[in-house]
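Readers outside the structure-tokenisation community will struggle with the description of the input data as it stands. What matters is that the chain and its backbone geometry are given together, residue for residue. For illustration, here is how one protein appears when written out as sequence plus structure tokens:

…
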Amino acid sequence: MKKLVYDILNKTKAHDVTFADVRFTSTDNEMIFFEKGNLKHYGRSLDSEAVGIRVLIDGCWGFAGTDILKTAEIDKTIKRAIYNARNGAKFRTQKVAYIPNKAIQTSYMFQPKEDPFLMDGPTKLNFLQNISQKMTTEKQIVYSYIYSSFYRQYKIYANTEGTFVDTLVYDVLPSMYVLANNGKESMSRTFPGHMNGRRGGFEVLRGLEMEKNTQVIMEEAIQLLDAPRIEEERADIIIGGGHLALQLHESVGHATEADRIFGKEISYAGKTFVKPQMLGNFKYGSPIVNIYSDGTDVRGMGYHPVDDEGTPGKKVDIIKNGILVDQQTSREIAPLLGLEPSSNMMASFADDIPLVRMTNFCLAPGKGSLADLIAETENGYLIDNTKTWSIDDNRNNFQFSTEIGWKIRNGEIKGIVKEPTYFGITPEFWNSCDRICGKEEWEMQGTFHCGKGEPGQTMHLSHGVAPARFRNIVVNVKA
């Protein structure tokens, strides 16, 4: 396939392009789903291949992709990309400023400890079935499931600047769910939660100790049936990493995708309250809040040697000591804001157009353990595991609820509460953050399902977070 990519790239050069790049992807997926102890679904798709071609002509991008890798179809795809650029250039009021990148040639091949695509079927099925059957042993658990999705993608990226990179990655999405009912209401628990994607192979499932945690979530779901709800109008809350990752994702990650500033996503995924004049001076959070995008961290699903337009992976501070200092950008958008491209242009598959996307978007750790943070909290709640969420188009006003919370009184856990719900405005919320746990609590969370674009794309990405405390948060709609 490397020769195919080279051949396509050489064909684009014959059309007087300012810049061109070619991507090839071959993607494998496997999904196993058990419901109430029984195998409900098994699916496997191998060698899903695609090619994407992007050209810059007369200050306008043109893109076309195909999953038919025959010469005649590829030639048509090249012509479509060139036509799209030349035709689009007629309507552009501002030309794309082309700033070249240094050429990179490298290869990255991730090696899982246990390759799920090489393992025999019975080993995987028996592992998940054993856990699934354990979730049927409690009478009050009326519904349960466990599933795991395995993903492998080989990618080649090349451009007219001389960059040529190929990568192989493996990702895993494991999840289990139980629903308890007492005849009056139902309560659910999941594990490892909503942000459950991880880089790796089958070893991820073993490392999560899913069988051990089966009993934990069943017991907690049953306890939640009789648990009270939060009654205060405001409270201090400590948010665990499993849910804080989503809070970070929705209220900072999407808000700092710079294409939203210029109206690129208004019709589908919304806008942002961020304005260009805020860069360098806007107090997004308290002084301890440091948030960054890091495509160089191999622990996350967002790792990449180059993004899907050839910008080398890098670490970029987005919020530094509480101040908004940068954005997630592309080669086109960064110059409009006086910034350097952040290496955040990514696409799900080669025949998808690259978009500004989160990769590894992280909250830097602070100091101390979760136990320390609980001990120094006089009155409040520890909450975790996302249940529902809502946020406005500007990424400003939000409401989140979690599956479970634990009441804290005088530095000690004093029982659980059901469905903790809190409300906020993004800058006020992040400015209320007064403690973030240290490196010992910091973990990579992740998702397979970050949606963006028309036609829609779903991206794999990671968030590194540690539990953090937020003061005087609205936890009751009456407030």
